[in-house]
Amino acid sequence: MARVAFREADVNLMARMMRAEAEGEGKQGMLYVGNVIVNRDVADCADFRELRSIRDVIFQVQGGNYSFEAVQKGNVFYQRAREAEKKLARKNLQGWRQHPAKYALWYFNPYAPCPPTWYDQPFTGQFKQHCFYEPQAGTCDSVYMG
């Protein structure tokens, strides 16, 4: 059973974001980015309280900027979704999750060692260049459900 409701348009949008954010980190890296996207849709807390769809997650604006850098920079994100990435997006949407992004709501590439916390959120692990962070215990229980 799917973790979130989705349509083919969501698959395409998510596939484009996964590729734009993590193509250089291969299929596994793109799946981890997909974990974060779905987790933000599921989460009903913090900065993600008002997000109700994959589209809401992808185009969320915080502090005057899009949450995902790829939306602002354009390049790969605005290219057509490829079948390989659509397959990965469907896998995430249907429930695939894995450490270090299993419950992560944030990731970034620090171009240095991963800090132990990021905006007070605990570090859960690193995959290639991306550091992943999940919410502090008790602050966002909804991300752990489903």
TrEMBL record:
Keyword terms, alphabetized: Hydrolase
Domain Cell wall hydrolase SleB intervals: 24-133
Single GO MF annotation: hydrolase activity
Source organism, top-level taxon: Bacteria
Designated name of the protein: Cell wall hydrolase
Native species: Tigheibacillus jepli
